[in-house]
Every structure is written in structure tokens, then in C-alpha cells.
Amino acid sequence: MSFTKKPGGKALDILQNLPRITLANLRPEPGTKKAEKKRGRGQHGGNRSGRGHKGERQRGNRPRLGFEGGQTPFYLAIPKYGYNEGHSRRAQYQPLTLNRLQYLIDLGRIDPTQPIDLTQLVNGRGVTIQPQKRDYGVQLVGEGAGIFAAKVNIEVQMASEEAIAAIERNGGIVTTGFYDPRSLAVLCKPVPFFLSGQPIPKRMLPGEDMVPYYTDAANRGYLADPEKIQKARIALAQKYGYVLPDISKDELFHMLFMRKDPRQIFFGLSPGWVVNMTEKKILKPTDDKLLQYYNS
Amino acid sequence: MSYQEHARILFSLSLSLQKQTLCIPAGEAKSGILASTEEYKFVEQLISPSRVPFPPKHDGPSPFGWNPPSASASNTLLHLNSQDKVEGNIWASEKDVKEYLQQLTGKHLPTQVNEVTMTFRVKGHFDTALKEWLVKKGF
């Protein structure tokens, strides 16, 4: 309780005159430490020592956890069902809310004048992706769609319909693209990869189960037909009730339309190239077979 | 130009990048490697910044609702009904908070100051009210 009139107070004066603080001079605030009950000692801890009267309870011979006296226990009566079967092998997508994206742009951690992809999000410390833990990327989630007000060209791995609508309403572009685990690790941490001296791998195409997702224009998949995507943009605008801005008249339209090739991991860098960071050079193969492999 | 024409042009641009090879042959280079420094700027864009960037200037609150702090702010953080990490005169800021809350609620509220950890606590839930008050003061 504050009752001293002088600021800085008597505490400072007292401190200046006291000897050095050591463990021997300190004691906890009265009321913070409650003494524990010692079993087998005194009126309250002694006698039966909190074990009850006779039987299995006092003698410490109770049956195993879950035993119901002979009745088929709950954990055996309920039939098995594979709710969690293979849960550790399922793909996970780290959610990214529009709230968070707006926050990152407002604080200058992400540059909306450049295309935003997973590398930029990780560099701006916006999301944390663990490719080794079955993370397959980031998913755009619609929370914060009401306050979102940034024009961006963003590439994610999955996106909800509200999120797509919110971004397109502001004149931006969303694309969903697939990265296989090795490409994802390279995308999230490019610098250690370049330092390892390996050629940039080509990004693999999605597996059978994800091909329908990435070829669907409604999800703005990177393998979908651009004409269908344009129709889907108009349809979504009608569904959510906003006017679709014309991006081709925008000053940043060239940046907004930048998209990666399905086999490309980084903007501007092709698969097969080796990056030399110490000499700031890029080494490219010229062998026919290699070129054929990397360009296929 | 329509959206789909744009997309097709940029697809072909990215593909053609692979065929574009600026050759600066390095002395005794092994046959089969071309060195180039043209595309290194794309690598530089991928390098993560090591320092926290300065936020861009906003007029008033940003779309997220973040208010840029004024130049003369001392670091204070608000958590529930306790004021943490108060630099400078803790008794003065405690007095200000008490006066403000007295105007707000009309009651004399008990407070506890901890000079050792530089925090003080106020009894009651004044989360949003105190946050707005601090923003007005320029923190």
C-alpha cells in the first residue's frame, strides 16, 4: 500500500545504510510460504496419516487405474475407431491470420511492394515452419478479414475462401502452391542451403490427393487454368458483395502478376543453379542432360 | 491486357530465365559451368534481416490498430491490472494511474508498489481503459 509522501522513498535511504544483501539477510514475505503437512506427525498429520480406515485404501493395494470392480471397464467397452490413426503422418499447415499479416505489414516486417512468399514470411519472423515435423507450409485464414487493408501478391500453400475474398477485395492476388518437404526446407531457410553448395532442386508436383486442390480455380491453385481463375475472382466478388478492382490499371501490376513456375522454388533463380555466396556468383550447368532434367 | 494474358506472359518469362545464360567464363573453369553475377540480386532478397526494421510512418492508428509511440516514451507494458517494467519514477506513474482511475470509477483503489521488480498493481480490471489512457499519453 502506498503511504509514503516522498518519491523514491524511505526504501532507498534504508538500502543505503544496510549491509550487503546475501541469502542470510533475506526471508520470504510473510504469508507467501505455507508449511506443508508432515504425515505421521502430530494430531492432524498422525494417526492414520490421511489413508482412511482399513481395506485396500489404507493398505495400498488398490487395483489398476480403470478397473471397475469386475464390470467391463469404459476403456474396453467402447469400440476402437481410427480417429488418430496416422495422425503423426498427416500434413500440417501453419495458420496465418489476416490480422497477423496486417500487423506484420504495418510494422514494416513484410514489404507489400514485393511478392510475399514463405521465405519473406519466415524472414520477417511472421510464421515458424518446421518442415521436419510434417509441416507442408502455411494456410491463410480469414480471421481479421474486416480490418485487412493491404494490396499484396501473396503465395501460400492453402487459403480459405474468406481470406481469398479479403485479399482480392483490396486489389491483391492470392496463389496457392505446393512445396514438397525438401523444397519447403530450402524455401524456409535459403541461406544455409546455399552455403551447403548443392544445386537448387526442382520443386516436385503435388501427390495424387492434392492435385485436385491445386488444379481448382476456386482455391487459386498454381496449376489451375488462368481463365477459370479470372471467372472465379468475379464469382467470389459477387458472392461476397464487393467490386473487383481492375488490377491491370494498377501501378504495381507487374509485381502483382509475378508468379513462380511450378518447378521453381525462388523468384528469379532456376533449379540446377548453384549459388556461391562468398564470391556472390551463380554457377549454371551447361551439360545437355542436366539442362533437360532441370528444365522438364 | 487481360489477367490471363498477363499470367501467360509471366509464366514464359520465368521459364525463359532458365535459358538466359550470361556467360562470364572463369579462367580455368571446368567445361560445363557458367558463372554469372546478374541474378545474384534475387539471392540478396532472400537473406533474412538481422535487425528489427523501423516501422513505416502511419498517420494515426494503422489498420491493425497499432499506435506508433511518441519520441519521449519510457517503456511500460500493460498486463491485466498490473503495470510492468516502469522505468523512471514509479511512484509518480503510480500516482497518475490512481488519479485517473479515481476520476473513472470515483473510488479510492488500493495499489501495491514493488520497487525491486519495478512493477505496481492495481486492484480491479482496467485492461482496455488503461491501455487507451497510455496511448493518449503517447506510449
UniProtKB/TrEMBL annotation, chain A:
Belongs to the universal ribosomal protein uL15 family. It comes from the Eukaryota. It is found in: Mitochondrion. Keywords: Mitochondrion, Ribonucleoprotein, Ribosomal protein, Transit peptide. Its main location: mitochondrion. GO terms for biological process: translation. GO terms for cellular component: mitochondrial large ribosomal subunit. This is Large ribosomal subunit protein uL15m. InterPro entries: Ribosomal_uL15, Ribosomal_uL15/eL18, Ribosomal_uL15/eL18_sf, Ribosomal_uL15_bac-type. GO terms for molecular function: structural constituent of ribosome. Residues 17-71 are annotated as: Disordered. It holds the Pfam family Ribosomal_L27A. Residues 95-175 form the Large ribosomal subunit protein uL15/eL18 domain.
UniProtKB/TrEMBL annotation, chain B:
The keyword Iron-sulfur does not apply. One of its GO terms (cellular component) is mitochondrial large ribosomal subunit. One of its GO terms (biological process) is translation. This is Large ribosomal subunit protein mL49. It is found in: Mitochondrion. Keywords: Mitochondrion, Ribonucleoprotein, Ribosomal protein. The keyword Ribonucleoprotein applies. Belongs to the mitochondrion-specific ribosomal protein mL49 family. It comes from the Eukaryota. It comes from Oncorhynchus mykiss (Rainbow trout). Pfam families: Img2. GO terms for molecular function: structural constituent of ribosome.
